[in-house]
Specification:
Helix content is about 20%, strand content about 35%. It is built from 2 helices and 13 strands; from the N terminus they run ββββββαββββββαβ. The strands form 4 sheets. It has a 4-stranded antiparallel sheet with strand order 11-12-7-13. Strands 1-6-5 form a 3-stranded antiparallel sheet. The longest helix is centred in the middle third of the chain and has 22 residues. The chain is elongated and about 60 Å long. The N and C termini lie far apart (about 55 Å). About 20% of the residues are buried.
């Protein structure tokens, strides 16, 4: 058995899971998500837990088994408590602001950069801390939006200026004169 796939997905209170064919619908206090399963993988609900099973022990089916279970787990956590990514802005004069639902970034370019997030994502900024908070129920979408914002000005290796994930360690290189 897959080590991840054989573990049951516990359904928390105030969260409902329905399985209709190859689609798992998850609803909770934060919203609704659905997970499409591969035809070689099936799921059932027993004792307030979702159990995922596969057809055979082929390598492909083992991988799909663990993947499907992880996707269902991510959906259950997302609709019950949600996901959050935090980005830090490092650099003199670098800052961010939210106008309506749009994110406006000043990152050392000659112009401010505007970023419009998807409707499912909520972005907030704490200017005193120079941090951007990205909240949502879909783990994949939250990570994708955070990566897109980070790509606007990745941390550079000499001074470390740019946008980085909270807790990310950037290796600082020695300059030309430091080697002599």
């Amino acid at each position: 058995m897959s080590r991840v796939g054989k573990q049951p997905v516990v359904i928390p209170a105030k969260t409902t899971v329905n399985i209709a064919g190859q689609i798992v619908n998850v609803a909770g206090p934060m919203g609704k998500l659905s997970v499409h399963m591969h035809p070689d993988v099936s799921a059932k609900i027993e004792n307030n837990e979702v159990l995922v099973s596969r057809k055979t022990d082929m390598k492909k089916h083992k991988a799909l088994h663990g993947l499907t279970r992880a996707l269902i787990q991510n959906a259950v956590i997302g609709v019950s408590s949600g996901y959050q990514k935090v980005l830090e802005i490092i650099g003199v004069g670098f800052r961010a602001d939210v106008k309506g639902s749009n994110l406006i970034l000043w990152l050392g370019f000659s112009h401010p950069i505007g970023f419009t997030p998807p409707d499912e994502i909520k972005i907030s900024v704490r200017p005193k801390e120079n941090k951007i908070y990205i909240d949502g129920i879909d783990k994949e979408l939250v990570g994708q939006v955070a990566a897109k914002i980070r790509s606007l000005r990745k941390p550079e290796p000499y001074k470390g200026k740019g946008i980085r994930y909270s807790g990310e360690v950037v290796q600082i290189k020695a300059g030309k004169t430091a080697g002599k």
